[in-house]
């Protein structure tokens, strides 16, 4: 018997003013699963994450998390249910040290990692504990952005393009960290345009085009259908 998915998005539509960005987004994520949202620039991937989080408020359809409807809820209420969001722009405090960045986020649920544990988990950050955000490399900033959302105790992570703008060797390291989080039982929904990176971390892929889901593939199916999926991404 299949258990209910942890997250179930159904017929999600979203607007920026009069402009409709999402037309029909439906997919689900099982407990412990790592799912990517892939698609080209402007397809609606970030808007999907922002709609789940309630940051895009002009939205319709249904978003069930642990069977509870998130539609109509405010962002702080959604966060308190156990969903953490790492935005594309990373959102770290540039003038604060790594350690300060890790101590600031509120604790929303029991079981979050302490700053000491976070520095052990991300050795690159430990070496930079007293450095300010502005002194970090792009890869270190991205790791800090992911690390800081692990403090609040949320077990469902929304990660928006963690590989963006990073050198291949750094992308590999981020991938390793994300796989470790999955092994620790986190459920992850990851927005990506880097297909190789997506393949290296995910169980399943949801393809978005023009604000709608056009395909869903397991990682094995993606390997077989790689050329077709590449056309969705325009590569
Ligand atoms: P990207 O990787 O470029 O962010 P994406 O797939 O995440 O691509 P979205 O950022 O979700 O795409 O954008 C979906 C559509 O919504 C695009 O047409 C975009 O121009 C539009 N859009 C995104 N943010 C805003 C905003 N704040 N105001 C108005 N339109 C927006």
From TrEMBL:
GO terms for molecular function: ATP binding; ATP hydrolysis activity; branched-chain amino acid transmembrane transporter activity. One of its GO terms (biological process) is L-amino acid transport. Keywords: Amino-acid transport, ATP-binding, Nucleotide-binding, Transport. PROSITE patterns: ABC_TRANSPORTER_1, ABC_TRANSPORTER_2. Gene3D superfamilies: P-loop containing nucleotide triphosphate hydrolases. Belongs to the ABC transporter superfamily. It comes from the Bacteria. Coiled coil: none annotated. Pfam families: ABC_tran. The keyword Transport applies. SMART domains: AAA. Residues 7-235 form the ABC transporter domain. It comes from Pseudosulfitobacter pseudonitzschiae. This is Histidinol dehydrogenase.
């Amino acid at each position: 018997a299949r258990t209910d998915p942890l997250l179930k998005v159904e017929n999600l539509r979203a607007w920026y003013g009069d402009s409709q960005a999402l037309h029909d987004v439906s997919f689900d994520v099982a407990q412990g699963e790592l799912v990517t949202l892939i698609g080209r620039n402007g397809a609606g991937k970030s808007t999907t994450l922002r709609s789940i989080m309630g940051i895009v408020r002009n939205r319709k359809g249904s978003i069930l998390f642990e069977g509870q409807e998130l539609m109509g809820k405010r962002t702080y209420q959604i966060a308190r249910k156990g969903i953490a969001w790492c935005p594309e722009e990373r959102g770290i405090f540039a003038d604060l040290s790594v350690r300060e960045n890790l101590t600031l986020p509120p604790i929303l649920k029991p079981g979050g990692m302490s700053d000491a544990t976070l520095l052990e988990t991300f050795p690159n950050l430990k070496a930079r504990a007293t450095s300010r955000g502005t002194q970090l490399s792009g890869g270190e900033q991205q790791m800090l952005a992911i690390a800081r959302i692990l403090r609040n105790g949320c077990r469902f992570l929304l990660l928006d393009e963690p590989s963006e703008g990073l050198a291949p060797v750094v992308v590999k390291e981020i991938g390793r960290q994300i796989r470790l989080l999955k092994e620790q039982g986190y459920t992850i929904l990851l927005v990506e345009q880097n297909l190789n990176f997506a393949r290296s971390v995910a169980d399943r892929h949801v393809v978005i085009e023009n604000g709608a889901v056009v395909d869903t593939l397991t990682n094995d199916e993606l390997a077989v259908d790689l050329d077709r999926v590449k056309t969705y991404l325009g590569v």
